């Protein structure tokens, strides 16, 4: 039986989850995989702090070199989070010929080229299934199961916090602020929720997904990002009346040699598989030219689901005779600066003759046709009514151009939300 020395960089909730899982599953892994993992050293900030796992004190160190320079450690598991020093430590480990297993989407998305180059030069393995959607094996599918396909699009709910918030707002009609406060009390949202609610977390993950799906590096800086903080209950209610469900979507598509990558709130039809993904669950919907449509669904966060993906990667790293790196072109990708989809538009419009005609004419002048118009009955103190428009598929640029020419004396813009999957 092979004995593999491993080291941890960091040991927070996920690191402790991996340690516990390795302890619990030692016999199962030895019996089924023919390998035993020996945890040699664990890098932590404070060696005296109490931890969620019963870790022998002798394993703990506050010196990175004890992990990075130990010749008995063949595989390094990174749990530090953030871009630095995690990315630099991973590069050092890979350059020394040690394979790396990580769930760190920020470091991977921000330093993809440098990290992959270090792995390629040394021949060490780089494994990162847990960096996107936790226990959901979407990256393995893109890398190993769908090679015969030309992936046309990847659309996903890849942040559990925002999906929980929008699910509660939809079910209860509650405000964003009230649901966020509940999520923070329950530990589903961080005290500073910016990374989740402003779409940064999903943008890092989409950078990785799009890079693997289209075999071109899609830098995170090229991902359009918009969060959910401006979403109002009335938007969700009006969408529901049109048979639509609101989600924070990560969307990547390739068309005519250009890649569009964007994270933003979007309506999907109630009949779409993504509409039924509720609370903190994740799902990724893939369309390939040969396989057609498929969806990957499961828990996208949490210490044990993430630990499950990390240990799976660890076993793959230990059993590989040769470590394969993703087939990604070194040429810079061409990013689409405009895209086409349907748009949900909510405005406060003066309830006077000719207002609707004026609004529609501005859209028509920009080549945007209207599929549905709904005027809500209640009026505000200024006598304005809620006017809901659902466009046919149109370019983002054209819709924004039309809205910029609608004067406030005619209508005041409330929200613009894209519609996908119709």
Description:
- The protein is of the alpha/beta class and 422 residues long.
- It has three domains: 2-127, Rossmann fold (3-Layer(aba) Sandwich), CATH 3.40.50.720; 138-299, Dihydrodipicolinate Reductase, domain 2; 340-419, Alpha-Beta Plaits (2-Layer Sandwich), CATH 3.30.70.260.
- The chain is built from 15 helices and 17 strands.
- Strands 7, 8, 9, 10, 11, 12, 13, 14, 15, 16 and 17 form an eleven-stranded mixed sheet that branches.
- Strand 11 and strand 12 (292-299) form a beta hairpin.
- Helix 4 (86-95) packs parallel to helix 6 and helix 8 crosses helix 9.
- The longest helix is centred in the last third of the chain and has 17 residues, at 303-319.
- The mean pLDDT is 93.
């Amino acid at each position: 039986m092979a004995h593999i020395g491993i080291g941890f960089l960091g040991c927070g909730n996920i690191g402790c989850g991996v340690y516990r899982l390795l302890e619990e599953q030692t016999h199962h892994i030895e019996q089924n995989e023919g390998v035993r993992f020996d945890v040699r050293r664990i890098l932590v900030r404070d060696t005296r702090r109490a931890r969620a796992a019963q870790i022998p004190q002798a394993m703990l160190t506050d010196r990175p070199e004890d992990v990075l320079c130990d010749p008995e450690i063949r595989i390094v598991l990174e749990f530090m989070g953030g871009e630095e020093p995690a990315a630099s430590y991973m590069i050092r480990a890979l350059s020394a010929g040690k394979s790396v297993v990580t769930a760190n989407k920020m470091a991977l998305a921000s330093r993809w080229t440098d990290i992959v180059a270090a792995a390629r030069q040394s021949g060490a393995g780089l494994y990162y299934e847990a960096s996107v959607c936790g226990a959901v094996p979407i990256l393995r599918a893109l890398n190993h199961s769908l090679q015969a396909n030309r992936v046309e699009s990847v659309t996903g709910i890849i942040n559990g916090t925002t999906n929980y918030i929008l699910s509660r707002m939809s079910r209860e009609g509650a405000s964003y602020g009230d649901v966020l406060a509940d999520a923070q009390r329950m530990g589903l949202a961080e005290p500073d929720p910016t990374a989740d609610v402003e779409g940064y977390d999903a943008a890092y993950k989409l950078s990785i997904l799009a890079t693997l799906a289209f075999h071109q590096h899609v830098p995170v800086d090229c991902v359009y990002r918009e969060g959910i903080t401006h979403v109002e209950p009335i938007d969700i209610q009006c969408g529901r009346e049109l048979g639509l469900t609101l989600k924070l979507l990560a969307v990547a598509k390739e068309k005519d040699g250009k890649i569009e990558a964007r994270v933003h709130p979007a309506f999907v039809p109630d009949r779409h598989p993504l509409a039924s993904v509720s609370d903190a669950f994740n799902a990724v919907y893939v369309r390939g030219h040969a396989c057609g449509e498929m969806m990957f669904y499961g828990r996208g966060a949490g210490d044990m689901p993430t630990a499950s993906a990390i240990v799976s990667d660890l076993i793959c790293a230990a059993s590989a005779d040769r470590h394969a790196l993703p087939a990604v072109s070194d040429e810079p990708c061409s990013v689409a600066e405009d895209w086409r989809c349907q748009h949900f538009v909510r405005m406060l419009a003066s309830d006077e003759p000719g207002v609707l005609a004026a609004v529609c004419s501005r859209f028509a002048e920009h080549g945007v046709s209207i599929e549905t118009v709904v005027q809500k009955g209640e009026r505000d103190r200024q006598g304005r009514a809620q006017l809901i428009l659902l466009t046919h598929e149109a370019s983002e640029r054209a819709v924004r151009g039309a809205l910029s020419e609608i004067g406030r004396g005619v209508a005041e813009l409330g929200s613009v939300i894209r519609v996908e999957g119709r």
